[in-house]
Design brief:
Blueprint: H1 3-13, H2 40-46, H3 49-57, E1 75-79, E2 85-88, E3 92-93, E4 101-102, E5 110-118, E6 121-128, E7 134-139, E8 149-152, E9 157-161
Antiparallel strand pairs: 1-2, 1-9, 3-4, 4-8, 5-6, 6-7, 7-8
Amino acid sequence: MTSHHRRALLLTGAGLMIAPSAFAAGPDPFAKSQWRKLTDAEWKKRLPPESYQVLRQDGTEQPFTSPLLNEHRRGTFDCLACGLPLFKSAWKFDSHTGWPSFWTVIKPNIRSKSDHLLALEERTEYHCAQCLGHQGHVFNDGPKPTGLRYCNDGVALRFQAT
């Protein structure tokens, strides 16, 4: 059972079914992406099991397990599933949370949606705009200039040195 289904079941059992809002409105430059046409079985073949769990099932990796925590070279952090660049290394910072964190994104390569963890708690989940693979959550406790912390699962990224 996926984490999304567990949340829906929890909320339904409590008599409160709150559906996540749709992806951000506006023109979708990736609407015809070949990556969105892949089946679940095709994704399972393409991705390592832990990456599949995060990218396609909205899972979360264990904190402090990603080798990307210690990646400090110049380059980009790209979606592991489709290769779309999501973050520049200059935007990475140590959030002391155990996940690679960034204070901004390469626009329009990220799409966000509301994610209801509990009936009274709402947070913002974000996905790769090209393949819709789950990346992580964004919080309002990051550094200047944005004050944002894009908390990403390392198994959902690959680093490309420049």
